[in-house]
Amino acid sequence: MKVGFLGPRGTFTEMAARALFPDKELIPCQTIPLSMDKVSTNEIDLTVVPIENTIEGSVNLTLDYLIHKQRLPIIAGVTVTIAQQFLMHPIQLEKGNVPERVLSHPHALAQCHDFLKETYPDSQLEYTNSTGSAAEWLSTNPEVPAACIANELAAKEYGLTIVHKDIQDYSSNRTRFLVLGRPGDTHQVEGPYKISDRTTLMITLPEDYTGALHQVLSAFAWRKLNLSKIESRPTKTGLGNYYFIIDIDQKMDDILIPGAISELEVLGCKVELLGSYTCYSLTDLRVV
């Protein structure tokens, strides 16, 4: 089995993929959409993509590409605790240079805003496709007075030195990842710690229906189906047109969720199942 992840080596996505698929071939992909395309074209079997961060919220690129471009079923989820490190090349440290540039993924830079503002206020911030690509660039440009923000795996992978450890603004920072496959595939996924079961639906409301969203929520509420998340995203068909992504805290059953879906369809809603799956974590969240 080949499993894709947002590359290059040394990203948090690779950490998630390693935890779920320790004995599988892991394939780094340059972008999130590319990794999803590779599943669709049978170049890889599964891919691991980021979907939500504690600080930055949803990863809209993943969500929109999943909905509008590659409708791949969700088969598992995994949560990773995010510990960001400030890395420099050993050559720059020997010279005693202060980094003029700090490279990383936009989310990582945002997650370390307070640290950067206080410690390196004059350094220019530059965006990269991933934290791993920032570390890779730094390792191949030792003559440049620069630094990057990445994880410990990237430091080991690219021979960089951790100058400042755990620089994220919030200690509770975590990112949730999804495992995507192809329709009809029955791959088994297991993680270190099980968090919960989840069913994800996409709901499009009927036009000109007063109180439609209230009735959608009521269909779940009276059945005592707990919703852990509800989010709107544009349908890209016109201003003011949205669909809703809803996470239900249980797997698909034979009565409750199908009953809610049938009720919504009677109201004129379009309901699509994105996945019914188990969510894991790399650490026991009960003791973190």
TrEMBL record:
<dbReference type="InterPro" id="IPR045865">
    <property type="entry name" value="ACT-like_dom_sf"/>
</dbReference>
<feature type="domain" description="Prephenate dehydratase">
    <location>
        <begin position="2"/>
        <end position="182"/>
    </location>
</feature>
<feature type="site" description="Essential for prephenate dehydratase activity">
    <location>
        <position position="175"/>
    </location>
</feature>
<dbReference type="GO" id="GO:0005737">
    <property type="term" value="C:cytoplasm"/>
</dbReference>
<keyword id="KW-0456">Lyase</keyword>
<dbReference type="InterPro" id="IPR008242">
    <property type="entry name" value="Chor_mutase/pphenate_deHydtase"/>
</dbReference>
<feature type="domain" description="ACT">
    <location>
        <begin position="201"/>
        <end position="276"/>
    </location>
</feature>
<keyword id="KW-0057">Aromatic amino acid biosynthesis</keyword>
<dbReference type="GO" id="GO:0009094">
    <property type="term" value="P:L-phenylalanine biosynthetic process"/>
</dbReference>
<comment type="pathway">
    <text>Amino-acid biosynthesis; L-phenylalanine biosynthesis; phenylpyruvate from prephenate: step 1/1.</text>
</comment>
<dbReference type="InterPro" id="IPR001086">
    <property type="entry name" value="Preph_deHydtase"/>
</dbReference>
<dbReference type="Pfam" id="PF00800">
    <property type="entry name" value="PDT"/>
</dbReference>
<protein>
    <recommendedName>
        <fullName>Prephenate dehydratase</fullName>
        <ecNumber>4.2.1.51</ecNumber>
    </recommendedName>
</protein>
<dbReference type="GO" id="GO:0004664">
    <property type="term" value="F:prephenate dehydratase activity"/>
</dbReference>
<dbReference type="InterPro" id="IPR018528">
    <property type="entry name" value="Preph_deHydtase_CS"/>
</dbReference>
<keyword id="KW-0028">Amino-acid biosynthesis</keyword>
<keyword id="KW-0584">Phenylalanine biosynthesis</keyword>
<dbReference type="InterPro" id="IPR002912">
    <property type="entry name" value="ACT_dom"/>
</dbReference>
